[in-house]
Write a structure and sequence with these properties.
single chain; alpha/beta; about 35% helix; about 25% strand; globular
Amino acid sequence: MSNIKLVAMDIDDTLLDDKKNISLKNKMAIQKALEKGVKVVLSSGRTFNGMIEYLDELGINGDDQFMILDGGGVVQSVSGKIIYQQTLSNAAYRKIDKYVVENNLHYNAVDVEGNTYTSNRDFIDKYTVLQAFENNKGLIIKRPGELPDDFEIVKAILNEDGPKLDAITPEVNRLFGDNHYVVRTDVGFLEIMPQHVNKGNGLLHLAKYLGIGIDDTLAIGDGENDIPMLEQAGVAVVMENADDSIKKLADFVTTNNNESGIATAFEKYVLN
């Protein structure tokens, strides 16, 4: 019998197929696990508003179900009770904004309520528009000096096409990596978060809160920002569509996101 009591899974390119849908097989496997009393936790760089439609579709709701959002910056119940939260200081926010402006880059920042901010005015890039659309709270165009002195953010996201991000990543790590967690979350997204914020620490905080041993947890992911979660969990499952460097961390490589890889993993580790 399975001893897995909590499954933490990424959303994009993991739970969702390439058309951003949840397959019927994945949905049925997750619902069987929930009926069994297993905690199924969506763990994503998305904000609450960017996750809620999938939680609703899966029937994950209420005070006793949980989510890891903002890349691990916030851990909360689906009903909104905050278990853990970390933010970047106003000084850090201003430093990031200064770097972006001086280097003519594009970025957005997300606050604790899931609002999207940018100081870019001449041109709003497609990635910032996508972020604001997912967050479903509009886009606030303001410079740090136009916001309160105690304004803090959960994370900043540098948005550029892949080759541009490849080029600036070493410098961003040099400037911010010592005191922050810098991670590439997708082709056009390079995120800067508080130093100890990642999906792995989010999982640790949630497991401790629930009284679940980390050995009784399973993580499923495909991307660089899933690595801390895969390393912390008792069982690490990596999607077939992930890079080989991430597959090396896997206890099991499941089928890809278009072939119901979540259901395959659940059948192997959770529903037996």
